[in-house]
Amino acid sequence: MKKLKIIIYSTAIILNFGVFCDASKILQNEIQRHVVKKGQTLWAISNYYNVPLEEIAEENNLNTASKLRIGQILKIPISRKKIKMDLGIFQWPLNGEIISHFNQKLPDRINKGIDIKPQDSFLVHASKKGIVEFSKALKGYGYTIILNHSQGVNTVYSNLSSSFVKEKEFVEENQPIGKIGKDVRKQEAFLHFEIRKEDVPLNPLHHLP
User: Fold this and answer.
1) Domain map of the chain by residue range?
2) Which residues of the chain have pLDDT under 70?
3) SS3 (DSSP) at 173
């Protein structure tokens, strides 16, 4: 039963590139006021507060592409349940260029991690030591690896062409765990990477050196 639960949980992560839970349903929220300043966008404000873009838009009866005006007051749903954000430093899973940011709206999804285009190597490394919770190929998404770092912290590595690790295997920080391949829809090689705490996606850039 536990094995089945892990497979369902992991498959849901990949089919939505991380959208398998709604933080607003998991956590009780309080509202904080934000006064829009020159040059600010919903996406930038979402990243600043680490609150999903769609939640801010819904709270303010906007759509995710709405333009903001200087002085506009937004209601930001902030979690009352404080998730410990001091998770330590994670290492970059590979060297490259970020081509899609956390909470960025894409044609087929809201990004719950970051997408990294490789610079010099297609090898993917463990961002932190942990146990392999999931390592399988999923149709349309390539190989996907999920590492458990204890205390409710997981990292997700997707869009791989191959995996070097097996489930329940212990891996060291910076250990090669797989190799990225081309996205079947975009025909572009990139790694989709997530950091999660208690099933809630966090902005990886807040925890990478």
Assistant:
1) 2-21+85-206, 28-79
2) 1-30, 78-86, 182-187
3) coil
